[in-house]
Design a protein that fits this description.
Helix content is 79%, strand content 0%. It is built from two helices and no strands. The protein starts with a helix and ends in an 8-residue tail after the last helix. 6% of the residues are buried.
């Protein structure tokens, strides 16, 4: 497996995790827990964008 393939796999995993967290946030009735899950999903999605950029050869990840 190449490094690029590893990055792509990591991005897929991260996006799936972010989607799961977002769905869990929609199901919960506790406002604090909902916000915590949404925030975590957002952080993971942003990180996945950085990893995706690295996989495509972009040497300047988003901050």
């Amino acid at each position: 497996m190449s490094e690029s393939d590893a990055y792509r796999g990591r991005v897929r995993e991260m996006r799936a995790k972010a989607k799961d967290l977002q769905e869990a946030a929609e199901r919960t009735t506790d406002p604090r827990e909902r916000q915590r899950l949404k925030d975590k999903a957002r952080r993971i999605e942003a990180e996945s964008e950085q990893v995706s950029g690295m996989a495509s050869g972009d040497i300047y990840p988003m901050e």
